[in-house]
Amino acid sequence: MLDHSLFPSDSQFCYVITDRHRPDLQNYLGLHPLEQALVSHSVDIRKAEFGDARWCAHKALGDLGIPGLDSLEPILRGERGMPLWPAGVTGSMTHTEGFRAAVVAPTTTVRSMGLDAEPAEALPREIIGSVARRGEMAQLDRLRANGVDCADRLLFCAKEATYKAWFPMTHRWLGFEDAEIDLRDDGTFISYLLVRPTPVPFITGRWVVRDGYVIAATAVT
């Protein structure tokens, strides 16, 4: 599903495939009590999503091999749900129907990351207008002509992955209209940031449509 081509070379990732209709709480119940408490009043499907994504994050942290890093240190939440990673680490998590994943990297080489996954299905028509800027519509037609039937969902994922990389650097909201995405046929994209001030003028990313999911990953190196 995921592979190293989506991420910077020194990052580590992990993912799990789950039953879409039957939530499994095993990973949630194995979390640190402080992590469990973040969603303790949620329904089981939310607990399962949360537990699986954080299990992936802890596994990826362990694979980083940073001396002194406690891969089981609780990953708590900051503003707007931003994961609070251990010192010296940046990363991102995602969960959707039947799929959870996380990616992490050392901050010595990667400043911020974003990861988003969605079922490879077209967006509801009433949503497209709020996601796509006028200049992005033509490339959706081009991608559909080239066989990417879920091009609008891909754009949504790219914008979500852009936001996930943006917010830890700025602690500011980034709306769909605040980034212009250049989706390329070779599986890459560039997110041009339209708000000021901005720490970087653009954020680069990669995308795939694979095994029924569309996945977008961003990194500021």
Automatic annotation (TrEMBL):
Which SUPFAM superfamilies did the record assign?
A: 4'-phosphopantetheinyl transferase (SSF56214)
**Lineage, opening ranks:** Bacteria, Bacillati, Actinomycetota, Actinomycetes, Mycobacteriales
Residue span of the signal peptide, if any?
A: none
Q: Which superkingdom?
A: Bacteria
Q: Which molecular function terms from Gene Ontology are attached? A: transferase activity
InterPro entries membership: 4-PPantetheinyl_Trfase_dom (IPR008278), 4-PPantetheinyl_Trfase_dom_sf (IPR037143), 4PPT_N (IPR041354), Enbac_synth_compD-like (IPR003542)
Q: Where is the 4'-phosphopantetheinyl transferase N-terminal domain?
A: 35-105
Which keywords accompany this UniProt record?
Answer: Transferase
Pfam families membership: 4PPT_N (PF17837), ACPS (PF01648)
Task: Give the 4'-phosphopantetheinyl transferase domain ranges.
Answer: 113-217
Which organism was this protein described from? Corynebacterium suedekumii
* Name listed for the protein in its UniProt record: 4'-phosphopantetheinyl transferase
